[in-house]
Amino acid sequence: MKRRDALKNIGFSLGTMVLTPSLVSLLQSCTASISWTPRFFSPAQAGLLEKTIDLILPKTELPGGKALHIPQFLDGYVSAVMNTTEQDFLRKSLAAFEKITLQASRKENIEALDLDDIDRQLFSLLKADSPSKAAWERELQDYDADKDAPVSETALAYAFISQCRDRAATAYRMSEYIGEQVLAYDPIPGMQKGCVDLQTTTGGKAWSL
Q1: pLDDT tens string 103-136
Q2: How far is CA 81 from each of CA 18, 21, 22, 156, rounded to the nearest angstrom?
Q3: Of the given ranges (4-13, 126-135, 177-186), which has the lowest mean pLDDT?
Q4: pLDDT surpassing 50 at residue 3
Q5: Which region holds residue 69: left if phi is over 0, alpha if psi is between -120 and 50, else beta?
Q6: Is 64 exposed, middle or buried (0-12, 13-18, 19+ CB in 10 A)?
Q7: How far apart are CA 198 and CA 195, in angstroms?
Q8: Which of the two residues, 64 and 3, has the higher pLDDT score?
Q9: I need a surface site. Which of 48, 49, 136, 205 has the fewest CB within 10 A?
Q10: Burial of 69 (0-12, 13-18, 19+ CB in 10 A)
Q11: Handedness of CA 138, 173, 127, 104 (dihedral sign)
């Protein structure tokens, strides 16, 4: 399936991010910036995030997530929107993802990880069988209810990469380029027509606004 078609089915609910004027403003500021000094992630982690987003949202006939500054947006989102508890969990889940990726690649630091190393880990987590995913999700639910509950590094890594994927997809969809150039966009809408065929009205595209 081409990215242009897949974007029609991406919802704003992914990753529990709600579209607000402040989030749109944050994304616009990230898109306009030339240089990037991470606010939450370390420089090494920011590099890992960029490589990961490059794999999740690669350049095709459309710009990739890196070109639309999605890593910068996610860094700003974590710093400005997430509370302390959420940030602490993100640090823990990111550390787990770093550890298991380094172990699998037999490398000593995350700066040495290349796209192939990260891609193999993404595949093992996001393309895992249903029983494995269900087991990880149970671990995470138990941990969410009781922070003393045991939780494996694999489950934590799965939580990190799932959130990264979902929030990146949401940010990608609400970027200015995708909203205006790919999705159905009408800054001055006319009359409302209910129960109409989306294929007829927008060519099957979801509305960006």
Answers
A1: 999 999 999 999 999 999 999 999 999 999 999 9
A2: 11, 13, 10, 21
A3: 4-13
A4: no
A5: left
A6: middle
A7: 9
A8: 64
A9: 205
A10: buried
A11: negative
* Tokens encoding 16: 């529990």
Q: 150, 138 in Cβ contact below 8 A?
A: no
- pLDDT for the residue numbered 174: 78
Higher pLDDT, 81 or 7: 81
DSSP state of 205: P
Contact 182, 3 (CB under 8 A): no
Band of the pLDDT at 36, cuts 50, 70, 90? confident
Q: Is residue 8 classed as helix, strand or coil in its secondary structure? A: helix
Please state, in angstroms and rounded to a whole number, the distance separating the CA atoms of residues 148 and 94. 19
Letter for the amino acid at 163?
Answer: Q
Report residue 173 as tokens. Answer: 């969809």
- Written as one letter, the residue type at 8 is K
Coil, helix or strand at residue 182: helix
